[in-house]
Design brief:
CATH topology: Rossmann fold
Mean pLDDT: 97
Structural class: alpha/beta
Largest sheet: 5 strands, parallel
Strand order of the largest sheet: 2-1-3-4-5
Strand content: 15-25%
Shape: globular
Radius of gyration: 14 Å
Bound molecules: 1,3,4-trihydroxy-5-OXO-cyclohexanecarboxylic acid
Number of strands: 5
CATH superfamily: Dehydroquinase, class II
């Protein structure tokens, strides 16, 4: 079964309590449960990871990339400055969707820049937790059509 890594960065463990107008009321465990259940329907194993530490996220990607077919990542604030995260995403060269719950382009100027966006397949920003679901559906269909070629 194809495996997709779902990675959440700093402060996303606080979802459900964090500014709910921006980030919604669903907790991270609830989102992860919904993704695993969607993964079951799509025939994709979903492996979830969250850390507040840049190094732990990079270690997780390095340790799991060989077994993975794709990545869904919400890097949180690392989006805006982590060149180390950008490098590892470029190095592993897996299909990767960057997800943001809020629309980062409608927020502060410093949030409108993503250093990771240029090395990922695509970005979903502003669709709330459903952005993760759409990313998973996209990866499932992209991986399926790749198999048929
Ligand atoms: C976020 C947007 C980032 O700017 C912020 O630092 C986050 C969450 C989002 O999902 O909208 O932690 O990635």
């Amino acid at each position: 079964m194809k495996k997709v890594l779902v990675i959440n960065g700093p402060n996303l463990n606080l979802l459900g309590n964090r500014d709910t107008r921006l980030y919604g009321v669903k907790t991270l465990p609830e989102i992860e449960k919904a993704l695993k259940s969607e993964g079951n329907k799509l025939g994709i194993e979903v492996l979830c990871f969250q850390s507040n530490s840049e190094g732990a996220i990079i270690d997780f990607i390095q340790q799991n990339c060989a077994e993975a077919a794709g990545i869904i990542i919400n890097p949180g604030a690392l989006t805006h400055y982590s060149l180390a995260l950008r490098d590892v995403l470029a190095d592993v060269a897996l299909p990767c969707i960057e997800v943001h719950l809020s629309n980062i382009y409608a927020r502060e100027e410093w949030r409108q820049k993503s250093v990771t966006a240029p090395v990922v397949t695509g970005q979903i920003s502003g669709l709330g937790w459903q952005g993760y679901l759409l990313a998973l559906q996209y990866l499932a269909s992209a991986l399926e059509s790749r198999k048929q070629k």
